[in-house]
Design a protein that fits this description.
The chain is 31% helix and 10% strand. The protein is of the alpha+beta class and 125 residues long.
């Protein structure tokens, strides 16, 4: 994601939405190692903010603009985004790219191609 931001960040607005933690230690699929922070699933807004900050630092994306989903996971549910997913909102405000669910559907190279295509597309009014 950091590479995409460096490549396209001057042309489009990037926004990371931190949703429900995918691999919390108290979840069905805890993840340890591979640089992932060892965290419990947040139960308060303050805990979610702290975990989001840890995860962004571990992924080296703390410089990307980020918002945090509410504890009720409304954004994650609305976009079927768990555990992670990539979207591109086009110039016309419609979804121009919707990647598959991660980790197997998480394909930044496809998003990059969609960004280039969207930047060259003319919007009819």
């Amino acid at each position: 994601m950091a590479e995409l931001y460096e490549k396209h960040g001057k042309d489009i607005q990037f926004l990371v939405v931190y949703i429900k933690e995918a691999h919390a230690l108290d979840s069905r699929r805890p993840m340890t190692g591979r640089g992932a922070p060892l965290v419990q699933e947040p139960v308060t807004w303050g805990e979610r903010q702290a975990v989001a900050k840890q995860c962004a630092a571990a992924m080296e994306i703390e410089h990307l603009p980020t918002i945090i989903d509410e504890i009720d996971d409304g954004v994650g549910a609305a976009y079927a985004a768990w555990p992670d997913r990539l979207f591109l909102v086009g110039k016309d405000g419609k979804i121009a790219y919707s990647g598959g669910r991660g980790p197997f559907g998480f394909k930044p190279e496809q998003l990059s191609s969609a960004i280039v295509k969207e930047l060259t597309r003319e919007v009819r009014r």
